[in-house]
Amino acid sequence: MDTDVKRIVVIGAGFAGLWSALGAARKLDELRVPGDQVEVAVINGTPYHSIRVRNYEQPLDDTLVPLDDVLDPAGVRRILGKVNSIDLQNRRVGFESGDAPGQSLGYDRLILAAGSELVRPAIPGLREFSFDVDTFQGAARLQAHLLELPGRPESPGRFTVVVVGAGLTGIELAAELPARLRSIIGESHGNAIRVILADRSPKIGQAMGGAQPVIEEALVAQGVELLPRVSLEAVTRDGVQFTGGEHIDTATVVWCGGMRANPLTAQFPVTPDPFGRVPVDAFLRVDNVPNVFAAGDCARILIDGERPSVMSCQHGRPMGRYAGHNAVCDLLGLDMLPLAIDWYTTILDLGPWGAVYTEGWERRLASQGAAAKQTKRTINCERIYPPRNGKREDIFAAAAPVVQAPPYTVREKN
Ligand SMILES: Cc1cc2nc3c(=O)[nH]c(=O)nc-3n(C[C@H](O)[C@H](O)[C@H](O)COP(=O)(O)OP(=O)(O)OC[C@H]3O[C@@H](n4cnc5c(N)ncnc54)[C@H](O)[C@@H]3O)c2cc1C
């Protein structure tokens, strides 16, 4: 360490990292430990907490929460920087900040919460010619491109958008696009709009259990063309090629091919899971790595004691609150709290048609249409935001290590 001050360092300020930092600050406040004895510091690549789950929407104006609005009242130190190394032996993280490379910071407890990134396989043209909604910047770039389309010379695929990957992100984006394109292009050119959702699985929404037929119905009702059983072979500036020879003229390909844990996880001497996540125990401690916790998309916990956590803000936020709490307890020799969540829901936006809400790991249909949409709006616009009133007591109340009840919805009548 640099001084006698003990330090908890959090890498990342997304859903897991922000709540890790606030969870740690809350526990220190409860224990009346002053900031000159234990410091909580967050290193994040941007000055914002990005409400990443909303990147399929437009506009995105309200999706970047200035970190200082939340961290300052909680007494958490914010460092703008990109972490590039973790020295487990000497307990230091290395990072670069703006034009200042080669910085480092010592830690007594470390919480890795650097999230995940879109998987980008080596498909010809994918990196050069496709768009994504994985990050705020990616989503803004896509929107800027769509806004330019009406000014382009006519071409066969000018108003065709091909979304590749029909996981939750791909479905939510495809369901939004017909109405979004109409608002950009105008109803007069409405007939020229095509939105195609392609996936290699036999059915679009295959993994969505009881919601699968609802998803198909909603997409088709909004004019989305479904293209299952295809695999992306190549992307060019003006088209897309699938295996089996299918070629589609398009000016816009959006890749939604799934997420993989941040590459920083490779710095740990553990066996990662297939998503690159490091295994953590019920207290969020990385297996066999002393003094290090992990939360969110970087970490794999058995969330109900049996099933692995899902890369989601649904799991990332509570993982963060518990990781922060437990890092303080571990540092001060207090009992830690195990995290266990005995419910799982999926609430999928289906554009102007509505949404669908499922319960349980097998995804039983609980609500759909306008009722589920209301729940989705409450989640996206309220539930997952930190308090933004600058009040320390509200921020600490939200950071307590408790498991929330599932989101409320008006249920289907059986
Ligand atoms: C379009 C879209 C829709 C989604 N919809 C849902 C949904 O409906 N429900 C749901 O539960 N989940 C959803 N997800 C998934 C969800 O967004 C992620 O699971 C969640 O963001 C994970 O939280 P996290 O804190 O682990 O990572 P992130 O939110 O990705 O945050 C990681 C943070 O770490 C920072 N960072 C990364 N690398 C470094 C570094 N080297 N140094 C410093 N800082 C770094 C980043 O800047 C970021 O602030 C969706 C994702 C997308 C893209």
Automatic annotation (TrEMBL):
Every FAD/NAD(P)-binding domain range: 7-317
Pfam families named among the record's database cross-references: Pyr_redox_2
Gene3D superfamilies, alphabetized: 3.50.50.100
SUPFAM superfamilies with a match to the protein in the record: FAD/NAD(P)-binding domain
Keyword terms of this UniProt record: FAD, Flavoprotein, Oxidoreductase
InterPro entries for this protein: FAD/NAD-bd_sf (IPR036188), FAD/NAD-binding_dom (IPR023753), NADH-Q_oxidoreductase (IPR051169)
Keyword Flavoprotein: yes
Cofactor(s) demanded: FAD
GO molecular function terms noted in the UniProt entry: NAD(P)H dehydrogenase (quinone) activity
A Gene Ontology BP annotation from the UniProt entry: aerobic electron transport chain
Family per similarity comment: Belongs to the NADH dehydrogenase family.
Listed name of the protein: FAD-dependent oxidoreductase
Organism annotation: Paraburkholderia azotifigens
